[in-house]
Protein: General stress protein CsbD
Organism: Methanocalculus chunghsingensis
Amino acid sequence: MGKNKDEVVGKGKQVKGKVREEVGKMTGSKKEQIKGKIEQVEGKAQEGVGKARKKVSK
């Protein structure tokens, strides 16, 4: 069984957040680094919801 929408969107948020965090590091922007980390956490949570839904639907 493949990934569901929550897993895919969650993984995308994690990648986007990591990029944002790295851009913040390169530019010296703590604000962007923090926003990136928050986005990564949101993505991990959403991916977890997707995995839980998949287990429940089995």
About this structure: Helices lie at 5-27, 30-56. The longest helix spans residues 30-56. The mean pLDDT is 95. The CA atoms of residues 21 and 35 lie 7 Å apart.
